[in-house]
């Protein structure tokens, strides 16, 4: 009977497998997908580094570049109706822009409404119970418009905003710098 190996008395021989017709042979990915062989993946992405250090480094990069358009009212505005005071940090606009770009990198397709939900918080109502309150829509809109002028963000046809290729490249480069700085401090 075909398929019986007399030596081992098993149903299938060594060269035959139960799924012989499906056995097409193994090939490396580079031969199946030639674009994978030529493309280099970044060594470090935004997801691989400490997020607070990344936002600090990106906000310093945005401030140093001097290209981020800042509105005149940044020192007067509250960041939502749940806040009592304006932000105490004078560089808060750069930090908010860096944080917004990071959120777009991680989520993608986020617009003004989703940014107000991200930056919302608890609103205290005196003796009444506290409730959730969204962040300022004007601040979110102006930050996204400023990032569009830098060509880091573009409008998504499905709604919202998304990162451009240049923006992704810049963020990965800064993440690599943050990872290298962390590696130096760990080694020393």
UniProtKB/TrEMBL annotation:
InterPro entries: Ribosomal_eS19, Ribosomal_eS19_CS, WH-like_DNA-bd_sf, WH_DNA-bd_sf. Keywords: Cytoplasm, Nucleus, Ribonucleoprotein, Ribosomal protein. It is found in: Cytoplasm; Nucleus. It comes from the Eukaryota. SUPFAM superfamilies: Winged helix' DNA-binding domain (SSF46785). SMART domains: Ribosomal_S19e. GO terms for molecular function: RNA binding; structural constituent of ribosome. The keyword Nucleus applies. One of its GO terms (biological process) is ribosomal small subunit assembly. Pfam families: Ribosomal_S19e (PF01090). One of its GO terms (cellular component) is cytosolic small ribosomal subunit. Belongs to the eukaryotic ribosomal protein eS19 family. Component of the small ribosomal subunit. The ribosome is a large ribonucleoprotein complex responsible for the synthesis of proteins in the cell. Required for pre-rRNA processing and maturation of 40S ribosomal subunits. Component of the small ribosomal subunit. This is Small ribosomal subunit protein eS19.
């Amino acid at each position: 009977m075909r398929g019986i190996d007399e030596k081992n008395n098993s149903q299938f021989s060594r060269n035959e497998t139960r799924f012989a017709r499906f056995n097409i042979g193994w090939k490396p990915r580079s031969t199946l997908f030639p674009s994978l062989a030529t493309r280099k993946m970044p060594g470090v992405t935004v997801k691989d580094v400490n997020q607070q250090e990344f936002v600090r480094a990106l906000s310093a990069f945005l401030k140093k570049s001097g290209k981020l358009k800042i509105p005149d009212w940044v020192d007067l505005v509250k960041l939502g109706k749940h806040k009592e005071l304006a932000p105490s940090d004078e560089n808060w606009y750069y930090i908010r822009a860096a944080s917004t770009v990071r959120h777009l990198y991680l989520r993608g397709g986020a617009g003004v409404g989703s940014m107000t939900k991200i930056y919302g918080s608890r609103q205290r109502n005196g003796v009444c119970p506290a409730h959730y309150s969204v962040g300022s829509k004007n601040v979110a809109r102006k930050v996204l418009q400023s990032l569009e002028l830098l060509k880091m963000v573009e409008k998504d046809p499905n709604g919202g905003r998304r990162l451009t290729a240049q923006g992704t490249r810049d963020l990965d480069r800064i993440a690599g710098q943050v990872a290298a700085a962390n590696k130096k401090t760990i080694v020393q």
